[in-house]
Amino acid sequence: MATQSQSAFNSQLKKYYTFYTGGFIAFVIILAILEQMGVSNKHLGYLFLLATIGLYAGIGIMSRTQDVAEYYVAGRRVPAFFNGMATGADWMSAASFIGMAGTLYLSGYDGLAFIMGWTGGYVLVALFLAPYLRKFGQFTIPDFLGARYGGNIPRLIGVVAAIICSFTYVVAQIYGVGLITSRFTGLEFGIGVFVGLGGILVCSFLGGMRAVTWTQVAQYIILIVAYLIPVVWLSMKHTGVPVPQLAYGYALEKVTAREKVLNDKTSPDGAREESVRQIFRDRAKAAEDKMAALEKDAAGTLAAEKAKLADKVTAAKAATPPDPKAIEAAEKAATAFPADAAAAKAAWKKDADGAKGRAAPIKPHADPFQGKDEKAQNIARLNFITLVLCLMVGTAALPHILMRYYTTPSVRDARKSVFWSLFFIFLLYFTAPALAVLAKFDIYHLLVGSKFSELPSWVSAWAAVDKTLMNISDINKDGIVQLAEIVIGGDLIVLATPEIAGLPYVISGLVAAGGLAAALSTADGLLLTIANALSHDVYYKMIDPHAATSRRLGVAKTLLVVVALIAAYVTSLKPGDILFLVGAAFSLAASGFFPALVCGVFWRRANKLGAIIGMLAGLGVCMYYMWLTYPFFGVNGAKWFDINPISAGIFGIPVGFLGIVIGTYLSSAPPKEVQDLVDHVRYPNLEGDIDTKMT
C-alpha cells in the first residue's frame, strides 16, 4: 500500500513540474514579446525578479507545515529523481552558476580544479556517507555525532562547525543575490540583498525542508535552462553547432591564436598592448619608489606626496575651461590619502601589486600550472592538487548537502539520489568550460580593438554596479580598447554573457533569474541547516527535551530570521569574492566533519574523546591558517608550503584524523550499544530500512 502511495505521489509530482516547466517557458516568450513591443529593460528586470521570487514564495506558502518530520526532513518521502534535482539546485550555488565560468575565464586550466573537486566529491558522498547516514535516519548531522559518539559535547561541536561553514557559504549566496538584483532592477546593492532575502525566508520559514525541497526542484529547472540558452546561442554564433562542448575546441584554438598575437610586441595589436603594459610597469615602479622613500623618511615622504596632490587640485581648478570631473577626481585622491605611514605603505603596496598584475603578458588559457620559473610552476601544481582534494572532501562533509539524503524514503533511494544529483550537476559543469572560452572569444575579438567612443552599453551598466567587476579606462589615450585596459571580475562573466554576445535583453533577465535561483536555493538550504542545528540540536536536545512541537518549530523559525539578518549584514562588508567564500566553506567542512563522520561509520573503536579532539583540532587548524593568510583579516602571515588560504583544509583534514586516533586510544572503547549502532548503519538491510524516531 505504501509503495502504491509513493508511486502515485511520484506520478503527481512529474505532472506538476511538467506543467510548471511549460508555464515558465511561456512566461519567457511573453517577456520576449514585451521587449519587442518596447517595454524597458528595467521593467523587464522587475518582472523577472517579482515573478520568480513570487513563484518560490507561493511554493513555500503551499508547502507550509507544523509537522516536525515534514519541517526537518520533508517527511522522508522525496523520490530519488526529485531529490537529485533539489540537491543539484542546493549544490549549484552562486559559486557554480556565477563564479565557475568566471574562474575558468580568468584562470584557464587552473580553474578546472573546481570542476574536478566538486564532481569528484560526489563519489565520496556515495561511497562513504549518504547511504549510511540515511540508514541512521535522524534529522541533522550533529544528531549523528551526538548518538554515535555519545553526549552533548560532540553534538555541540558539530553545531558550531555546521554554523561556521554554512554561514561562510551563505554570505557568498546573499552577495550573489545582491549583485543580481542591483544590476537587473537598478536597486542599490544593500536593498537588493534584502529583497532577495525575503524570497529566501518565505520558503524556508513556512515549510522548512518540505518547502525548500519543492522550491529547489523548481529553481533547478530555471537555472539549468538559463545557463544553457546563452552558451548554446554563442556556440551557434561562432561555429554553427548548437552543442557548446563540441564548439569548445574550435573556440579554444582561436583564443590561443589571439593570445599569441596580443603578446607579440611586433604586431600592431601587440604593440598597443605593450604600450599599456609599460605604463603599468612605470606605475608599479613609482609605487615601489614611494615605499622605499617612506622607509628612509616617513614624515617627509608623506608631506611631499600630500603637497603633490594639493597642487593637482589647484591645477584642476585653475584649468580653462574647468573640468568638474578632473576637479572631483583630484579632490577625491587628496581626501583618500593615507592617514599614516603604515596605511600609506599598505596602499602603495596594493597599487604596486595591482599594476604588476596588469603589466604582465596574457596568461595562455590552455597552459597548466603557469609561473615565471620551475618553482612557481611547482607551487601552482601543488595548489591545484590541494584545492581538488579539499573540494572533494568538503563535498562529502557539507551539512546542508548531507541533510538532503535524510529526505529519501529508503537507503536504496539515497544511493539513487546521489546518482541523479551528480547527473544534474554534470549538465552545468560540463558546459562551464565551453561558456568561459566562448565568452573569452567574444571579448578578445569584438571588445579588444574597438573604439572607446563605441563601447557597448553593458560596459557602463556593469561599471555602475561595481568598478571591481567592470572597468575600462583608456590608459594610453589612443582611443582603442586594449586587453590590458579591461578589468573584468569573474563574478561578471556568466551574468554579462548574453549582453556580450548581443542577445536580446530578455535572455539577460533569464540568466539573472537563473543566477538568483542558484543563490536562493543554496541560501535556503544553508539557513535551514543553521537554524535546525540550533533549534533541534541545541534547544530541543540540550535545553528543553520536552518542548512541544509548536515551540520547537517557533524557535527554528525565529532563529532562521535572526541568522538571515546577521548574514545580510556581514555580506554588506564584502569579505571576499563568491568563489573564495564558497571554497573556504568546503575546507572548513572537510576539516571539522569529514574525519568524525567517516570514522563514525567505518571504525567501531572511535569514541567520544577522539571525536572531540579530532573535530576541534581539525577545524581549529583550518580556521587559524585562513586567519593567518587571507588578506581580509589583515594579518599577512607567511603561507605554509605556499598553500593558498582557500585550501586550508589540507592541514585541517589530517590533523582531524590524527586527533580522533589519539583521543580514541587515550580512552576506553564506546559502549556495546554504540558499536551495534555502527554495525546497523554499516550493513543496511535495503528492504528493511529502520529509522530512529525523533519526537
Structure description:
75% of the residues lie in helices and 1% in strands. Strands 1-2 form a two-stranded antiparallel ribbon. It has helices at 2-36, 41-62, 68-73, 80-91, 94-107, 112-136, 141-149, 152-185, 189-239, 244-263, 268-296, 298-318, 324-335, 341-359, 374-395, 399-402, 411-429, 432-447, 457-465, 493-500, 505-543, 549-572, 578-592, 594-602, 608-629, 649-665, 672-682; strands spanning 470-472, 486-488. With 695 residues, it is an all-alpha fold. The two termini are 25 Å apart.
Core attributes:
695 residues; two-stranded antiparallel sheet; 27 helices; disordered C terminus; mainly alpha; globular
Set down the secondary structure blueprint:
Elements: H1 2-36, H2 41-62, H3 68-73, H4 80-91, H5 94-107, H6 112-136, H7 141-149, H8 152-185, H9 189-239, H10 244-263, H11 268-296, H12 298-318, H13 324-335, H14 341-359, H15 374-395, H16 399-402, H17 411-429, H18 432-447, H19 457-465, E1 470-472, E2 486-488, H20 493-500, H21 505-543, H22 549-572, H23 578-592, H24 594-602, H25 608-629, H26 649-665, H27 672-682
Antiparallel strand pairs: 1-2
Helix pairs in contact: 1-9, 1-21, 2-9, 2-21, 4-9, 4-17, 4-21, 5-18, 5-21, 6-15, 6-17, 6-27, 7-8, 8-9, 8-21, 8-22, 8-23, 8-25, 9-10, 9-18, 9-21, 9-22, 10-18, 11-12, 11-14, 12-13, 15-23, 18-20, 20-21, 21-22, 23-25, 23-26, 24-26, 25-26
